[in-house]
Amino acid sequence: MDVTLIDWSRAQFALTAMYHWLFVPLTLGLGVIMGIMETIYVVRGEDYWRRVTQFWMKVFGVNFAVGVATGLILEFEFGTNWSNYSWLVGDIFGAPLAIEGIVAFFMESTFIAVMYFGWNKVSRGFHLASTWLTTLGATLSAWWILVANAWMQYPVGTTFNPDTVRNEMASIGSFLQVAFSPMAVVKFCHTVSAGWLTGAVVVVGISAWYLLRHREERFARSSMLVGSIVGLVACGMVMLTGDSSGIMVGKAQPMKLAAFEGLYEGSEQAPFTIVGDIKIPGMLTVLATHKLHAFVPGINDILEGGYMLPDSTIALSAEEKMSRGAEALSTLRYYRHSRAAGRTQEAVVMKDELLKNLPYFGYGHIKDKQDLVPPVPIVFWAFRVMVGLGALFCLIFFLLIVMQWKKVPLTRWPLLLHTAFWCIPLVYVCSQAGWVCAEVGRQPWAIQDLLPVTAAASSLQTTSVRITFFIFLAIFTLLLIAELRILFRVVKKGPAIEE
């Protein structure tokens, strides 16, 4: 397939995904913060907290609407740009996306109407339940989408059917394996807690803007305290789930882990690189295996093979995997010819041979072993941007909580407030860097070890994909500008609260 077509198809999908991910984290984070604020209102009965909640609901609503628009386009692209992928694994990949649309999305769409228009029309308790159910619906949407994404990183619970040339779920047990795989659980917890962190940073940053202008100071301090507490809790969860994610990546995607660290030669006490030559000896081994002495393979080790795997088998070289993958593809063709010609006995033999090499099926499409190495500099620096900015956010949340606890006037610390404000764009940089690590780090695979992107794309005209790329770029940019203008207007106007 034309390499240019592959590159433009990847660029278009990456563009859509990155624009969509500008809106999802804030939806997840603001939903929790709004729920906490309205809970305080219901418990205390102070109308002040109702006004605080309603202000942040305005921000939530604008963000939610634009996020839905970009998300719908993203799902359609699987059928338009990646039809080979959809054919091979549509039975598995489509199931969680269908559940997300039928259950989770309709759930949040239903209760969001009560949340916005139910003030003074339903009881406080019912309205509070609607707010939390809207947040739960958004979180469940994230669950099923991340189940689909996690399966691409760690395909489990499926059976390859050589008659249809598709991967299928054979039973409810297979579905449960897909829905609750360790990769899915870890990815969901890490991503959702990162969304809470994003919401917290935005709330704290906007509150800092008000304090710097000596406006709505009570509102700003209240919002900042709730946001900082949620943010600090989220930071702890991000670190814990990030640690678990590192273990899973080390087991299922060792090449990605090696790219994170720019590790070319493995060792039993692999160091963790901060930047440049600043390294912590043995730390990568501890993070990746929770052991003091365990071999962590580097990029060259994975390509050359020959090292001991955790299950006590010897790792195959990339060339051997490619050879077995090519044999699997060839055997599949012979099996289908035998079936079509009615040579049943021969087909049985071919099927048994195919199943032996099926774990290396995707390697049959790889032409050069160097194609198995992701863009190391991009992944390496994206990982450090993500971790470094996360540490900065944790520090700011901690300082703000301590200062409010000790009743220190925050307006006397303009540098801290300015930093908190400018963390708003930085948290989006951090969030996007996380997805670059996850998605660029697993290249060249659309599905780990099963299907490379070169075999997943649709046979389209390159010009068509190029044109739609720029159309989407223009539409998404206009949507983003429109959203920002509305949000700036909402923030500038401020909450309807009398000081």
The helicity comes to over 70%
Domain unit count: 2
The description of the largest β-sheet is: 2 strands, antiparallel
Which geometry do the CA atoms define?
globular
Describe the structure.
The chain is mostly helical and 499 residues long. A hairpin with a 3-residue loop joins strand 5 and strand 6 (451-452). The model has no long low-confidence stretch (mean pLDDT 90). The protein has two domains: 3-250 and 453-493; 272-365, no CATH class. The protein has helices at 3-20, 24-44, 47-80, 83-117, 124-153, 172-179, 182-212, 217-252, 254-261, 283-289, 299-304, 318-341, 344-357, 376-405, 414-440, 453-456, 462-493, and strands spanning 159-161, 166-168, 272-275, 278-280, 445-447, 451-452. The chain is built from 17 helices and six strands. Helices cover 73% and strands 4% of the residues. 41% of the residues are buried. Helix 2 (24-44) packs across helix 7 and helix 2 (24-44) crosses helix 8.
